[in-house]
From TrEMBL, chain A:
This is Acyl-CoA dehydrogenase/oxidase C-terminal domain-containing protein.
From TrEMBL, chain B:
Belongs to the acyl-CoA dehydrogenase family. It comes from the Bacteria. It comes from Nonomuraea deserti. Residues 129-220 form the Acyl-CoA oxidase/dehydrogenase middle domain. This is Acyl-CoA dehydrogenase.
Amino acid sequence: MTLRDLSYAPIRVAARTDGLVAALSLLHETTGTVGYGPEGHVIVPRGLIEADPEAEVIDTIELHGRLLYGLHCPGRSGQAPEEWTLGLVWLRYGLSEGLLESCMTYLGGRTVGNSPLLLQQMIKGQLAEAVIAHLEVLTALEDAHPGDLDESALAALHQRITRTDRGLLRLLGGSSLCADGPGQAVHISELMADAYTKRQTT
Amino acid sequence: MIELNERQSTLRAYAREWATELAKRAFELERSPELVHRLLDLPGMVFLARTPVPAEYDRDPILLDGHRYDGGSMERVTICEEFAAADAGMMLAAPGPSMSGVLVSQLGDKAQQEWFFSRVLERPTWTFFALTEPDRGSDAGGLQTSLVPDGDRLLLNGAKRFIGNAARASFGVVFARTKPGPLGVVAALVETSLRGFTATPFPTVGLRGNQVTDVRFDNVEITMDRMLGAHLSPTRRGLLGAVRGLNKLRPGVAALGLGIARGAYEYVRAERRDLTAWERCELDEMARDIESVRQLVRRAATAADADDPALATLASAAKARASQLAEEITLGAFGFFGAGARLQHPRLDKYARDARAVEYMEGTRNIHHLNVFQGLSRRRLAS
Ligand SMILES: Cc1cc2nc3c(=O)[nH]c(=O)nc-3n(C[C@H](O)[C@H](O)[C@H](O)COP(=O)(O)OP(=O)(O)OC[C@H]3O[C@@H](n4cnc5c(N)ncnc54)[C@H](O)[C@@H]3O)c2cc1C
């Protein structure tokens, strides 16, 4: 199998069911690289850092008891290969699917008056919006091989996922702010997207 | 345009200076919420610790250039915007009467007000406000924490969640149920030193300075003199009675969102000097949105200070829009920097994390949209 034929299904599933750290480790393993963004940033689970003594740790984030590092290494700017950048969108997409599942569980178990929040029309509409966004992203991803989607197309997908995640987080109520829950994973997911989103600045 | 008068402008100038000074320690506070104990002598903290206290209880009020401040809503939104533009977490970490003070003013009798405010003025004292429960937040009317008579006192049992500052506090207001139905919810003043009271902080993605906690009440004994609103009719005490006070506070929470948005915007202005024509347009649009929401927030504050019947609708409109603005502007601000901006500009990242929290404080956007609809259907804004 060449990298071009890489299947992203396991990364998507890992993100959805096992969470961010498992999926990110799998992405590293599958692509065999630590993919630095255009300005030399990357988020890595602890353990991979030993592999890169040149990088400076500029952020440390905890997620479910695991540490992740935000690394900066200008010398490795833009080294993320195309299979990595496409894989990252799949990873964030899988996380977003997992977040939708968390919302369904949360809202199904919570009530207003005596009826589940899940049955409120406003909530149904907001969940539907998330599903529509997911379908849109999935449709763009499904037939894409590394290199098929240019930087701006990938950036647009990242933005769509970020906006969708924000909408879903709101549905989790205050619990979305807990540092040991899905809200922290979304924060890290946003940091990862940001590390690869190139922008024109003067 | 709703402009500040000279008194309010003076307050704004002081608040800006205090908040800027305190914000220098913002990341330290995030890492260690206990830091606030070492900042209590700074003028911003001193002011927040003593404000708002009704004039009759404050014999030695803080004067700023000769002006006295009594905690009106326009003052509150001014302070909240300035602090949040620097660092909202610092403001929410401060001691002071805060939300409980408003409720004690609203529901408490003379003796309770004297008890509460004299303690707040005696030394920097944190207070808390406990309404949300683990199983219900928006649906506050369904709360289950119970207050059951036991001889000449009541026993408080149950749990609350997301209670800001409860682990630092000396006392606060707790909502609990004495019987089924909307009139069965009452508010009580509860001291944190009482046996059976525990408050356990838990870490959050944003606004860590607020140090939210899980609170448990395990047979906490409450004396009758701590029940708020016993001198009022049943519809004016408890949750129903509190609603008016909460409506008055809401523009302040909206101003936190507004301030966070402004802080992110000002950060871009300061850090990105050579803008393209396109970026200048985008930034100007942000400035227009911020000013427009500022006007909405001030409109709600004006309604609060005038006891306008449209307050509930206006306050919800301002809160819903300001929390949306805070998320939009903080996310949009990264677009002015290169890839990796969130790691490279931690202050901007902090604004974005803090913005997320504004959504939940004092009710979510959906709930405020429902309130605004109610205002529409009842023609509350018709004029
Ligand atoms: C930083 C922070 C500080 C806080 N401080 C305090 C405090 O000091 N004291 C305190 O008591 N509480 C506090 N809270 C809690 C806050 O008030 C609640 O989080 C908020 O009321 C929402 O409740 P919830 O989290 O249970 O969400 P839920 O009520 O579970 O809501 C989940 C989702 O359902 C939506 N929803 C709910 N009902 C409806 C409906 N009828 N129709 C349509 N949509 C609906 C909501 O908008 C949300 O999107 C704080 C929260 C935070 C994040």
